[in-house]
């Protein structure tokens, strides 16, 4: 953010919007939309992970001799309990990796947005609102 002195130096005068400024504003807008999309994706993946963990907990109560219906595509296949637990463990690990990737992308987008905020607030002061 700007200090009061920097803000005062831009004064009440309107800064002319140059082509490069408009490009930065447009990029910020695209990044903001990408941030929203990534946040939704992250929430979905975290919910999937919670569901997998809940199923794993429920399966711990089942007998080792039981056949468990396991969904593959659009159909269910009866598999032995140890194999289903192995599959769930693998799915949980994959989901963890996906969550980490999305989180990393989200951090990158937020960092780039912050850099654009600094540049645009330095140029326009309070005459621009980039708070999301």
Structural commentary:
The structure is a single chain. The protein has 132 residues and is mainly α. Helix content is 70%, strand content 9%. It has 3 helices and 2 strands, in the order ααββα. A two-stranded antiparallel ribbon has the order 1-2. A hairpin with a 2-residue loop joins β1 (67-72) and β2.
How are the elements arranged and paired?
Elements: H1 4-10, H2 19-59, E1 67-72, E2 75-80, H3 81-124
Antiparallel strand pairs: 1-2
Helix pairs in contact: 2-3
Runs in which pLDDT lies below 50 for 5 or more consecutive residues are none
Helix-strand pattern, N to C? HHEEH
Order of the strands making up the biggest sheet? 1-2
Helix content: 55-70%
Oligomer: single chain
Provide a quick synopsis of the model.
With 132 residues, the protein is mainly alpha-helical. 70% of the residues lie in helices and 9% in strands.
Primary descriptors:
9% strand; 132 residues; mainly alpha
């Amino acid at each position: 953010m700007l200090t009061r002195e920097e803000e005062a130096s831009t004064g009440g005068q309107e800064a002319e919007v140059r082509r490069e400024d408009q490009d930065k504003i447009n990029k910020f807008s695209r990044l903001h939309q990408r941030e929203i999309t990534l946040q939704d994706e992250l929430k979905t993946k975290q919910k999937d992970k919670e569901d997998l963990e809940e199923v794993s907990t429920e399966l711990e109560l089942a007998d080792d001799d039981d056949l468990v219906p396991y969904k593959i595509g659009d159909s269910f296949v009866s598999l032995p309990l140890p194999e289903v637990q192995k599959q769930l463990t693998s799915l949980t690990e994959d989901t963890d990796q996906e969550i980490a990737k999305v989180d990393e992308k989200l951090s990158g987008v937020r960092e780039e947005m912050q850099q654009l905020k600094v540049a645009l607030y330095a140029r326009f002061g309070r005459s621009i609102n980039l708070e999301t």
